[in-house]
Structures are given as C-alpha cells and as structure tokens.
Amino acid sequence: MKQNQLGRDGFPVSVIGFGGWALGGQWGQQNDSDSVAALERAIESGINFIDTAPGYGDGRSETVIADMLVQLPPSIRQTIHVATKTPPSSGPWPPTPYCRWQDRYSAAYVRSDVEQRLKNLKTDCIDLLQLHSWTRAWNDDPQPLLVLQKLREEGKIRKIGICTPEQDQNCVVQLMRDGLVDVVQVIFNLFEQEPAAQLLPVAAETGTGVIVRVSLDEGALTGKYAADHEFPADDFRSSYFAGDRMVRTAARVDQIAADLKEFQLDEDYTLADAAIKFSQSHAAVSTVIVGMRNPEQVDKNVATAGLPDFAPEVLQRLRRHQWLRGVWYGGK
C-alpha cells in the first residue's frame, strides 16, 4: 500500500489507517477475537498505522491492539506505528472557552495519563500522542503542549498531536503556525469540508501531518443505512443520528450516489470508496483512518487504496455536497 510521510520529519504511514474505536465496544457488541483478526488482516494488507484512545472502551481498544502487536516478529512490529490520545480531565466535552488548562490538562495529569498509555500499549515510547480535544482559549498559553514537548525530550513520545474539537476545528491553525504540533487529526469528508478553507492549506505550508477521521460520517456515507434505520442503544450512533438526522442524511447520500452514476463511476466505486477517496483528495492529507471491525471490512477498505483518484471534474461535483449542518455531537 502507498505510504506518506506523517508531516515534516515524520514516520511513513499507509494512506489508509486502522481506526480502533469500534474495538472498544461502543459501536455495538465487539468480540476481541474479531478485533485481533481485523488487525492481523490489516497488517498483512499493508496498513501500518493504528489509531486508538483510552476512551475507546476504557482502555480496551489499546490493550487489544497491544496484545496483538507483541505477538508480531520484531522485524514487522517495528514498522507499525500506533497513535493514542490523552483526554482532558473531568469536565465539559469539548472544553469550553471558560475552562482553564490547569484544570483539564495540568502537567501532573498529562504525565500520569501518558504513563497509563505506555502501560496499556506495552511500550516505552508512544509513536504519536494526541490531546483528544482542545479549545482556542488556550492558544496563547499552550502549556499542555509544552509538557508534551518535555515528554518527547524524555523519550516517552515521538510526535505531538491534537484531535480537533468538532465545534472549532480551526483552533489548531495558530498552533501549527507556532510550530507546537507535529500532527493534527481532523474531520474532512463529503459533508464536512471546512478544513479545505484554511486548516489543510496551513498544514501543507507548515509541514504538519494530517490524519483524517470520520471519512464515512460514522457509517452514513457507506450507503448501508436507509432513512428509517435505527441503531441499537449500545451503539453511540443511536444518539449521533437521533431524531430526523438519519432521514436527512440518507437523502443527501442518495444525491451522492446519483452523481457517481452520472459520471458512470457507480460500478467502480462504492459509496464508501467514494467517501474515502474524497477524504484523501487534499494533498495535505497523510492518512485516512477508517474503523474496521473484522477482516471483511479491512479487505473493502484496503481495496479503496488501489482505486484511481477522481478526475478534477468529478471532484468538483462532489464538493457541492458540503453540508453546513452544525455539530451533531453537540446535540443540535
């Protein structure tokens, strides 16, 4: 599989990365044996980048990944890169403009959490440690990032990143320009295209690595879910697509399908293929992480990497599906 460098002086990452959220069990019931099988198939297929977080099943995703990786031959294990996250301590999600970094990401808290991440991942050094959320209220006094710099100097982490809060993804623009982050993880998909305005160009300008998440809009852009679909209560999407959201989403997905058919691409690209390829379309993007719960899903996602990029006229048409719908995570 093709690889890109994850930012300036970064390590190489496969253009499709493994998203580990579902391994924690919050996308419905998940068997650990299926998770391990998916991870093994992904590595066999050329995926060398895995993204996880402590919030994915209270550390379950991290430990499943770690237990699988320690079984690999050293020659293979050293080619696999794992990213995890430190969440803000107890309080509003995402942090509000009134939150103090001292209360959410104090030095003692960040250090303690990183030690737990190292323990869960069974490693002495984390390839990429991302703060799981942020507020631009801290941009002029970004002390948590300075703590991560010290941890990097101590050999605990290799790269520093931030996952953008959905409500204000552009909060990382100043941090990239100030050279405080090596990597940003953003939402960039057929519906959410705002990063193309400034965030992605600044990433390219500064040599910041870009990880794209939610390329499939939590599964909606696969086209698998009809307007009347209801998710089980133990699947976080039951709230993400609450009310009339699934109805409105399905109608827009149908419009994307119509565009693919008009360009005679519907036989070569599934809706999921098209969504992933769109998320890869900006030159600043290093890798697109996609959730994979079993080997079958891995095979489908890996196949997407081998499809040709969209012609300019197709890409231009697909850009019209930008949807200014507000932030659903916030309950709108």
UniProtKB/TrEMBL annotation:
Its EC number is 1.1.1.-. InterPro entries: AKR, NAD(P)_OxRdtase_dom_sf, NADP_OxRdtase_dom. CDD domains: AKR_AKR11C1. Pfam families: Aldo_ket_red (PF00248). Keywords: Oxidoreductase. Residues 16-320 form the NADP-dependent oxidoreductase domain. PANTHER family: GH17980P-RELATED. This is General stress protein 69. The lineage of its organism: Bacteria, Pseudomonadati, Planctomycetota, Planctomycetia, Pirellulales. The gene is yhdN_2.
